[in-house]
Amino acid sequence: MTRRLLIVSLVLAFTPACRNLSSFLEDQGPVDGMTVTPAADDEAPSKEVTLRTDDGADWIQIVSGEWLRGEILRVRDDSLDFDSDELGDQAFDFGDVLRIISPNHQVVLTEDGRIFEGQLSADGSSIWIEGDKTVKIPRSDVLSVLAVDGDGISTWSGEVSAGIAIRTGNTEQTDYSAVLAATRETARTRWASRYSGAISQVNGTETANNHRIGSTYDLFVTKRTFFTVPGVDIYRDPFQNIGVRVTPYAAIGYEVVDTADHMLAVSAGPAFQYQRFDSELASGGATDSSFAGVFSTLYDWDITGDVEFNAKYNITVPMPDIDEYNHNVVGTLSVDLSGDLDLDFSVTWDRINSPEANSSGIVPKKDDFRMTIGVGWTF
C-alpha cells in the first residue's frame, strides 16, 4: 500500500512540471533561421558551370544532363567507350551522348570511307573535327572514332593473366595457367591475338599440357559487318594425341547485338585444317589435312561497372567428314580489383568428336574441361 502511495505522489508531483515544459515549447515554436542569422559578407558562387578543357581531359554529356571527365577510348557500332578516373571504364550508347568536347587527337572514319584527324566536338546531331581546317559532318555518317596518341593512327590494348594452384600432403599437385591477349585497332580494322595454356603435374607426373594461339584480322565494312582476312587457330595437346593442329581461315561476321552492356557477334567461313599427331596413329599415318568450315560466336556482357562476362565458341567442321568436328568454348567472369588488376574466373571446354588412337591403340577421351582462377593486368 505504501509503495502505491509513493508512486501516485511522484506522478502528481511531476505532472505540473511536464505540463509547464510542454507549454513552454509550444510558445517557442520553430526558429526562423533567416531572421536570426546575419547576412553573408560575400556573394554566393556563380551558378554558371565552366568546363576546364586545357588539362588534356575529354568531356562528355549524357542524356541525364551529367558531364563526365576522362578519356574517350573509341566509338564503334554506336557504342562509346569512356575511361573515367573515378568511375573506371564505362560504355554508352552513342545516341545517349549529347555533347562531346575533346582536345585530344582523334581519328574519325565515315561510312563512305573518309578519314579525318584532329580535335573533336559534337552535339546531338553533328561532329566538328579541328585539324588543318575545321569540318562538320552528321553524326549518322560516323562509322568509328578512335583515340590515338601523338600522330599515330592505331591504339593497343591487352591483358596478361596468370594462375597457379599447389596442393601438398597425400597428393602433390601443381597447376599452372596463363592467358596473354593483345588487340590493335585502327578506325577500320581490328587485329586481336590471344594465347592460353595450362600445365598440370600430379605426384611428379604430367597430367595436362595444352596450348592454344588464336589470331584474327578484322576489316569493318559497315558499323556491324566485318571480314576476317585472315584468321588462324593453332592448338597443341599431346594428351589428345595432337602434336600441332593449324587452322587458317577467312570469314564474314556480323554484330547481331551491340549496346552499351551487351555485344553478340557471329562469323562463318571456309578453312583449311592440318594436323600432326603426337604419336603415329594405329592406322600408320602421322599427319592429316582437309578443307573445313568454321563458325564462331562472341558474347560480351558488362554486368556492372566492375564485373564483366564474356564467352566465345568456335567450331571447326572438316569436309566431308563432318563427324570429326572439334570445338572450343571459353567463358570468363572478370571482377575489377584495383586499378588495372582483375580477378578472372574461367571455364574451358575442348571437344574432339573423333579422337585418333595412337600407335598403342589408346583412344583419348573426347572432352576436356578446365576451370582456372587467376589475376590479370589490363593495359
Structure description:
With 379 residues, the protein is mainly β. It folds into 2 domains: 58-147, SH3 type barrels (Roll); 155-378, monomeric porin ompg (Porin, Beta Barrel), CATH 2.40.160. It has helices at residues 2-28, 33-36; strands at 58-62, 67-76, 79-84, 88-93, 97-110, 115-122, 126-130, 134-138, 142-147, 155-167, 173-185, 189-202, 205-220, 225-237, 242-258, 262-277, 287-302, 307-319, 326-338, 341-352, 367-378. The strands form 2 sheets. A 12-stranded antiparallel beta barrel has the order 10-11-12-13-14-15-16-17-18-19-20-21. Strands 1, 2, 3, 4, 5, 6, 7, 8 and 9 form a 9-stranded antiparallel beta sheet that branches. Strand 17 and strand 18 (307-319) form a beta hairpin. The N and C termini lie far apart (84 Å).
Rg for CA atoms: 32 Å
Strand content: over 45%
Q: What's the helical proportion of residues?
A: under 10%
CATH class of the largest domain: Mainly Beta
- Based on secondary structure, the structural category is mainly beta
CATH topology of the largest domain: Porin
At CATH level 2, the architecture of the largest domain is: Beta Barrel
CATH superfamily of the largest domain: monomeric porin ompg
Number-wise, the strands total 21
Describe the SSE topology:
Layout lengths: L1 H27 L4 H4 L21 E5 L4 E10 L2 E6 L3 E6 L3 E14 L4 E8 L3 E5 L3 E5 L3 E6 L7 E13 L5 E13 L3 E14 L2 E16 L4 E13 L4 E17 L3 E16 L9 E16 L4 E13 L6 E13 L2 E12 L14 E12 L1
Structural key phrases:
12-stranded antiparallel β-barrel, 61% strand, mainly beta, 9-stranded antiparallel sheet, 21 strands, Porin, SH3 type barrels, 379 residues, globular
